[in-house]
Every structure is written in structure tokens, then in C-alpha cells.
Amino acid sequence: MNILILHGPNLNLLGEREPSVYGTMTLGQLNAKIMAHGKKRKISMRARQSNHEGGLIDILHAHRRWADGIVFNPGAYSHYSYALRDAVSSIAVPTIEVHLSDITQREAFRRVSVVAPACEGQISGKGVNSYLEAVDRLAGMKRKKR
Q1: For 9, which of 29, 46, 51, 94 could close a Cys bridge (C-beta 3.0–4.6 Å)?
Q2: Whole-number Å distance between alpha carbons of 5 and 7
Q3: pLDDT of residue 31
Q4: Cα(87)–Cα(135) distance, rounded to whole angstroms?
Q5: Separation of alpha carbons 129 and 57, rounded Å
Q6: Which fold would CATH assign to domain 2-139?
Q7: Which of 86, 74, 89 is nearest to 122 (CA)?
Q8: Residue 133 to residues 31, 68, 124: CA-CA distances in angstroms?
Q9: pLDDT single digits (tens) 107-128
Q10: Which residue of the set 22, 63, 77, 131 is catalytic?
Q11: Among this protein's residues, is 52 annotated catalytic?
């Protein structure tokens, strides 16, 4: 199985950015934990990050034939990017939206995700475990025929 881990804007600043909300783990440390988790399950994984909406779309498109599943943290784009929602929908690869923090308990504008309806599910508020649970959930799914 192949799983793409895709991180959106500002996640490159993990460990520095609002540690009271996002913790002190860096993006490199987060990716290392996710990759180790996948390796134990014999899952091939790639991790990518972009601060740009179009960059994220390009990554989704480029991995659509390689990936059997995608773990996607769209960051703030979750709340208003219909372009990312359409990209997830158009590639027909099972995708789970994740967030380190519990977006349902944050500012009002963060409580709704326009990307989530195009996904198989959403996991938030569990820190690194949001990602690990998403990997496990995808590993249990069968790839949709394209």
C-alpha cells in the first residue's frame, strides 16, 4: 500500500508556531513518527508540504496514480478552499483530512471544513495520533477502482 502524507500551509513552522496549540514537535519529527508507523505496517509512504494552494493541488494530482490513500492536513485552507475540495474529489483516492488541534473547539471560522465532505473522514484534536489513526484507517480500506 502507498500513502501520501500531505501537509498544508504553515505546517513547516511546527515546533515554533503556537506551541500551546500545535505542540513542540517539528514537521521533521512529525514525519519521522508517521513514517515509522507506516514502516511497521509495511506501507510505502511519502510526505510533502506546501504553503501554496496550487502547490498542494499539483501534489495531489502528481500522486493520484501512486497513492492508495492520502492523509491530508490542509491547514487553514480547510475552511475556504473549494479548489482543494475539488482536487480531492477529482482524483478519487481515499483521503482522510487531519488536524493536530481540535478544530471544532477553536475559533468559529475554523469549525467548518469545506474539504472534509470530499474525504472519507476527518480526525482532529489528537496531535500526531490524528495522522497515525488516519494511516491505520486507510490501511484498512480497499482502493477504489478508477
Answers
A1: 51
A2: 7
A3: 98
A4: 20
A5: 25
A6: Rossmann fold (3.40.50)
A7: 74
A8: 14, 16, 10
A9: 777 788 999 999 999 999 999 9
A10: 22
A11: no
